[in-house]
Amino acid sequence: MLELISVSKTFNAGTVNEVRGLRGVDLRVRESSFTVVIGTNGSGKTTLLNAVAGVFPIDDGTIRLGGEDVTRWAEYRRASKIGRVFQNPFTGTSPSLSIAENFALAAQRGRARGLGPAVSRTVRARTREMVRQLNMGLEDRLDTAIGTLSGGQRQALTLLMATWQRPALLLLDEHTAALDPKSADQVIQLTDRIIARDRLAALMVTHSMQQAARYGDRLIMMHRGQILFDVDGERKKRIRAEELLERFEELRRLELLDEGAAEMLAELYV
Amino acid sequence: MSLLIGALTIGFILSLLALGVYVSFKIFDFADITAEGSITLGAAVAAILLVNGWPPLAATAMGALAGMVAGAVTGVLAMRFQINRLLSGILTMTALYSINLRIMGRSNIPLMNERTAMGQAEELGRQLFGKETVSALGWEVGVRDLSALLLIPALIVIACLLLFAFFRTQLGTAMRATGDNSQMVRAQGADDRWMVILGLALSNALIALSGALLAQYQGFADVQMGIGMVVWGLASVIIGEALVGTRQLGYAIAGAVLGSVLFRLLVAIALRWGLNPNDLKLITAAFVFAALILPKLTARAARARKWRAAHA
Fold first, then answer.
1. Could you give the number of structural domains in chain A?
2. Mutate which of B26, B173, B178, B195 to disrupt the A interface (most A C-beta within 10 Å)?
3. What digits encode the pLDDT tens for the residues B202-250?
4. Residue A16: which pLDDT band, with cuts at 50, 70 and 90?
5. Where are the domains of chain B?
6. Do A96 and B180 meet the contact criterion of CB atoms below 8 Å apart?
């Protein structure tokens, strides 16, 4: 489904601010697999998602999606195959447009946009039906500007929009990190429900070890632009949040050593 | 009375300029200064075609089309070549100055003796009323003035309805979202750069149409006529916002038209009271400046009041 072959990306190459975001990442994500991505700050997990989404061109490697080589596709073109929810709840929606108009944009994701009415009767009916399942009372406020809604509401709507046209891949970039605990809980449960219902392939970056342990059928840990740790199946099911925290602690200790020794230790023990 | 009607008519003609400025500045958040060149471009193209015997409607449409191209050029400079937005507009505007002179062949083309859209409106009015002057609300009004005052607003209403309908289509909605949140538009699979290019083309088509009509109404096209027009349009949009609010598309469009008409009336009154026409642009600029900073100043004053109340 999604295939990354030795993907590399360096930011600000050749300057003092050089950051090696991705260092030859290989990753295959199967059809309808819910993969959780964790890692320390600057480990490259968001960079990984952005590379797949096409936010920037990669330096090296190949990205294949649904059997097509999308490495050189522009971001907007890849969106025909990808649904996205962002960390910032304000990034996924257009604030001055109404709920119905935002959904009308999502209804045309990956299709040509013509001079037909945006909010057609079918779009409005479908929007109402989808929004009703949120139980937020928004189905009667379809003409309200989205900018007047709370972050949690907007993130839930963004999730519905991203999955309206069944995406080949759903990218979730710490999409609950900026929400209050109650909204975060609502949104993550909705996410799990939609992914299971539509059997979507999803990549979810998260900072929450509880989320990482509880959700998904595969777990990837990134460190310094590489995949350090990759479990799925029964092992993923058994994993606990505490165990993941220990892994991070281990990494932190390794960081204290010099780089050469750290690499040696990593090869020997990780 | 004739002064009032003249002010109203020009206000309506320039409301197309205000709508164009609304599209670029407000919908796309793009400070597009191409307008100063494209309003003259519309006038120049329409004028030279009229002099060469083109039918007025076709000449006017070609003027708008030329403006569309000019807007698209600015859009391509800014979006495809990633040139600073303001600079992209300045480059096109500067180039247009020479282009407009080339088109016209001189700096001023009189249209008094040509068959213009206004002339056609006047003929229509003469057939309709059957005489040279008409009594309206107790005033004797010339048929020429009255015909223009009836025809132009009708045209503006049609333009507004078309614009409103367009911005509610799939394409138009994606364009509105682009100025709001371009990241979201990309994530929904629309090319945000292309949206901006289209938007600037639309904006400058409206502005050039305004120029083409203005030239025919005032009876000449002049290479200098675009100077200060962006601020003029902006002032109209700001007045419109104050009048009807900005929350909804329909209100904003109607507001831009009302703002333009009201602004032109205020200018006519000020000139009547003895304002030096040379000071007009200074006063317009000062007005826009005040309108831009006033909301911030009042917000700061409100915060200060609150602080004092809380710490009293």
1. 1
2. B173
3. 999 999 999 999 999 999 999 999 999 999 999 999 999 888 877 789 9
4. confident
5. 2-275, 278-312
6. yes
Please provide the CATH number assigned to the domain covering B2-275.
1.10.3470
pLDDT of residue A262: 61
Its pTM stands at: 0.90
In CATH, what number is assigned to the domain containing residue A128? Answer: 3.40.50.300
User: Is B176 within 8 Å of chain A by CB?
Assistant: yes
Q: How confident is the model at residue B312 (pLDDT cuts 50, 70, 90)?
A: low
Backbone dihedral angles phi then psi of residue A27, each to the nearest 5 degrees: -155, 135
Give the whole-angstrom CA distance, residue A195 versus residue A159: 10
Q: Which residues 244-303 of B are in CB contact (within 8 Å) with A?
A: 247
Share of chain A above pLDDT 70, in %: 95
Min Cα separation B62/chain A (Å): 23
Question: Could you give the percent of chain B with pLDDT greater than 90?
Answer: 67
- Report yes or no: A112 and A139 within 8 Å, Cβ to Cβ: no
- Tell me the residue range of the domain where A9 lies: 2-234+252-269
